[in-house]
Design brief:
- This protein is α+β, with helices and mostly antiparallel strands.
- It has helices at residues 2-13, 16-26, 43-56, and strands spanning 27-35, 38-41, 60-71, 74-83, 90-98, 104-113.
- The chain has 3 helices and 6 strands, in the order ααββαββββ.
Length: 116
């Protein structure tokens, strides 16, 4: 599951061609992504959401914060978003649920720390 979380964060940090490949490899066709600012279904919609976030925060990277907690086909973890090598400006908490093929099927995200 730690590898899945790593691939998940890699997806959020990926550029166009790598993003398409990571989504095709690690995300289910009918994946769902929900957070306080977005609710989308399918790889194309997830890609558009990721691209919008990357455009809003150019040069920022997603990094793991703390340990990954897992059981069954799900993982929960915190992530940070900020300039590379610096303290994250935004911190979130996600729960990722896998399908039977070990691909990301469902993501539920929360924002724990956002700038005012």
């Amino acid at each position: 599951m730690n590898d899945i979380v790593t691939r998940y964060l890699d997806t959020w940090n990926a550029t166009d061609e790598a993003l398409t490949e990571l989504l095709a490899t690690h995300w289910a066709d009918d994946c769902v992504y929900v957070d306080p600012l977005a609710e989308v279904q399918g790889r194309e919609a997830v890609a558009a959401t990721i691209q919008a976030v990357r455009a809003q925060f150019p040069g920022f990277v997603f990094t793991p914060v703390g340990d990954v907690d897992t059981h069954h086909q799900q993982a929960r973890f915190q992530w940070g978003l900020g300039p590379a090598g610096e303290e994250p400006i935004i911190i979130g908490f996600d729960v990722v649920v896998l399908d039977d093929d070990q691909r990301i099927r469902d993501v539920r995200g929360f924002l724990d720390k956002v700038p005012s």
